[in-house]
Amino acid sequence: DGEMQMVRIQAGSETRVLRAPVIVAAHGSWEPGPLPSQIGKTNRPSDLLGFKAHFTGSSLAPDLMPLLVFPGGYGGMVLADHGRLSISCCIRRDMLARLRKQPNHQSHLSAADAVSRHLMESCRGVRDALESAHADGAWLAAGPIRPGIRSCYERDIFRVGNAAGESHPVVAEGISMALQSGWLLASELACAPDGRAGREAAGRRYEAAWKKLFSTRLHAAAAIAGIALHPGSATLMPAIVRNFPQALTLGAQLSGKTKPVPGFV
Ligand SMILES: Cc1cc2nc3c(=O)[nH]c(=O)nc-3n(C[C@H](O)[C@H](O)[C@H](O)COP(=O)(O)OP(=O)(O)OC[C@H]3O[C@@H](n4cnc5c(N)ncnc54)[C@H](O)[C@@H]3O)c2cc1C
Questions:
Q1: Domain holding 88: CATH number?
Q2: pLDDT, tens digit, for every residue of 197-241?
Q3: Whose CA is nearest to atom 48 of ligand 1?
Q4: Is the beta carbon of 50 within 6 A of some atom in ligand 1?
Q5: Ligand 1 centroid vs 105 CA: distance in angstroms?
Q6: Is the ipTM of this complex over 0.90?
Q7: What gap in Å lies between CA 244 and CA 223, rounded to an integer?
Q8: 35 lines ligand 1 (CB under 6 A)
Q9: For residue 69, what are the CA distances in angstroms to 16, 125, 155, 236?
Q10: Domain-terminating residue out of 107, 122, 142
Q11: pLDDT tens digits for 77-117?
C-alpha cells in the first residue's frame, strides 16, 4: 500500500501473509522459484556446478589453502573445523556429463563419484592430501552458480548476498560478501525515511555502496576463474606465480580480502 509491503508465505497447504516495511530477498541464486527476485533456470554446457565434501585424516598443512585447477573446472582445499579437510570445486556441466559416462556400461557414474575420481586423477595435491583420509559425510552439490552483478533494489525488493551479485567462488569471498551486503543495506535502511520514496532513496544509495565495495572483486574473480578454466591453466597458473609472486598479493587485494567494510570497525 505504499507504506507497508506484503508477502505470502506458503508451506504445503498452509499460507500466511506477512506485512513489513521492507522486503529483503536473501534466497541466493541457485534455486529457481516464483519470487520476482529469483532468476530463471539455465541449462548451458558452460554452466558451472558446485560440489563440496569433507574428509578426516588428511595430510593437508593447516596453513595451506591450495587452489585446484583441473580440466573443466577449479576448486580449493582447506583445513576447516575439527581438523576436517573441506574440498570444494566447480565443474562445467558438459565436462561432468562426459565424466559420468562409463565406456561399455549402460549406467552412469554418480555425479559425486565422477567429480571425486576426476579430482584425484587430475590433481597430485588432492591425491597426496587425501591418501589416508576418509570421507566425512556425502558430497554436496549446488548450482549452477550464477556469477554476475544484479540489481540491488528492484520492484521495491532489496537483495543481499548472491541475490544481489555473485562472485566466482575461486576467490572464496561469497560468504563475506553476503554478510557485508546485509551490513551495507542495514546501514542505509537505518537512516531511511518511511514509505516508498524513502525505500527508493535507500535503494539507490545501497546499490552505489554495493558496487563500490564489490565490483572490483567480482571482475577480478571472473578473470581468475577465466584463467583457471582455460585448457592450459595447469601450466599457466604455476608459471604466473613462479615468475610474478606478487600476483598472489595483488590477487588478494583485488579480490577484496584486504578491504574493510565502510562503517564497520
Ligand atoms: C563450490 C563452492 C564453493 C564455495 N566456497 C566458498 C568459500 O570457501 N568461501 C566463501 O566465502 N564462499 C564460498 N562459496 C560461495 C558461497 O557459498 C556463497 O556466495 C554464499 O553461500 C551466498 O550466500 P547467500 O546467503 O546469498 O545464498 P545461499 O547460501 O545460497 O543461501 C540462500 C538460502 O535461501 C534458501 N532459499 C532459496 N529460495 C528460497 C525461498 N523461495 N524461500 C525461502 N528460502 C529460500 C536456500 O535454500 C538457501 O538456504 C562457494 C560456492 C560454491 C558453489
A1: 3.30.9.100
A2: 999 999 999 999 999 999 999 999 999 999 999 888 888 888 888
A3: 27
A4: yes
A5: 35
A6: yes
A7: 17
A8: yes
A9: 47, 11, 40, 10
A10: 142
A11: 999 988 999 999 999 999 999 999 977 667 789 999 999 99
